[in-house]
Amino acid sequence: MAMDEIPRMAFRTTTRRSWLFRLGISDHELRGPLWRRATHGHYYFAPNNGNDPMRSVHNAIGFMPKDCAISGWAAAYLHGAQDLDGRRWSDGGRDPVLIVVPKHRQIRRKEFVTVRA
């Protein structure tokens, strides 16, 4: 499959490995310089800026189930509050993305903080 035939969404968000395979992107290509591993089984297109706050948000969106929601600084950033980008004042690191999950679901990842509601 040619690059122009791959949906643009595959280049903007963190995407499941299985979906990238269906689009014709091989395991060899995923290990190459154009792709980076975000979490287990999820990849993003490497030319994207890794320090961009949207990278953390896209990692969470690409991983979370459909019945969950982004919350905290990431939700504020998505709604236009550009000063709330998740950076800590103390060391400049980024806070994890807060995900609200239903009571019956659990997500355990160090990259995310979950709240069950």
Distance between the termini: 42 Å
Number of helices: 5
Which H/E pattern describes the elements? HEHHEEHEHEE
The average pLDDT score comes to: 80
Structural class: alpha+beta
**Sheet with the most strands: spatial strand order:** 1-3-2
Number of strands: 6
Proportion of residues in helical segments: 25-40%
Strand content: 15-25%
Radius of gyration: 15 Å
Q: Largest sheet, described in full?
A: 3 strands, antiparallel
- Low-pLDDT stretches: none
| Shape call | globular
Task: Give an overview of the whole structure.
By secondary structure, the chain is an alpha+beta fold. Helix content is 27%, strand content 21%. It contains 5 helices and 6 strands; from the N terminus they run H-E-H-H-E-E-H-E-H-E-E. Strands 1-3-2 form a 3-stranded antiparallel beta sheet. It is globular. The model has no long low-confidence stretch (mean pLDDT 80).
What is the structure about, briefly put?
The chain is α+β, with helices and mostly antiparallel strands and 117 residues long. Helix content is 27%, strand content 21%.
Blueprint of the fold:
Layout: H1 9-12, E1 15-16, H2 17-22, H3 27-30, E2 35-39, E3 42-45, H4 53-63, E4 69-71, H5 72-78, E5 97-101, E6 112-116
Parallel strand pairs: 5-6
Antiparallel strand pairs: 1-3, 2-3, 4-5
Which characteristics define this entry?
117 residues; alpha+beta; 3-stranded antiparallel sheet; 3-stranded mixed sheet; 6 strands; globular
